[in-house]
């Protein structure tokens, strides 16, 4: 492994640890808190997720502005930005599936992986089924689409 690959791996690991710590600190690995945010009409709405999302915007916005001014990142030869801009059927269906899963389980991939630190069987089941779905998509559906 060369030094650039090692530096990229270390930077990725550090970013992941910081992200996971932030999710844990904000309580977003607690499915009940997320479901409380999504329960707008149920009478027990928990607005704390709005503040977490606002904090994320405060961090991400200067980062995006910086990326737009740089020629290339420090640890790679180019930025790898999304190329697709169209709202197509795959994006809309995938977004709907993601939203349904988030609403039913109170978890999405990042918080679910962070929540593995808690020994709760539903979390392990969620992450296992998420991994199976990702492998099935990669091995079967992606080739068909």
Summarize this structure as a short list of keywords or feature phrases.
single chain; 145 residues; mainly alpha; 70% helix; globular
What's the structural blueprint in terms of helices and strands?
Elements: H1 3-26, H2 31-38, H3 48-69, H4 89-105, H5 109-114, H6 121-144
Short description:
The chain has 145 residues and is mainly alpha-helical. Helix content is 70%, strand content 0%. The model has no long low-confidence stretch (mean pLDDT 89).
Percent range for helical residues? 55-70%
Q: Output the helix-strand order.
A: HHHHHH
Number of helices in the DSSP assignment: 6
DSSP summary, beta strand count: 0
Termini Cα gap: 34 Å
Q: What would the average pLDDT be, to the nearest integer?
A: 89
Radius of gyration: 18 Å
Percent of sequence in beta strands: under 5%
Low-confidence stretches: none
Biggest sheet, open or closed, and with what strands and sense? none
**Morphology:** globular
What structural category characterises the helix and strand content? mainly alpha
Describe the overall structure.
The mean pLDDT is 89. The chain has helices at residues 3-26, 31-38, 48-69, 89-105, 109-114, 121-144. The two termini are 34 Å apart. The longest helix is centred in the first third of the chain and has 24 residues, at 3-26. The protein is mostly helical and 145 residues long. Helix 2 packs across helix 4. The protein contains 6 helices and no strands.
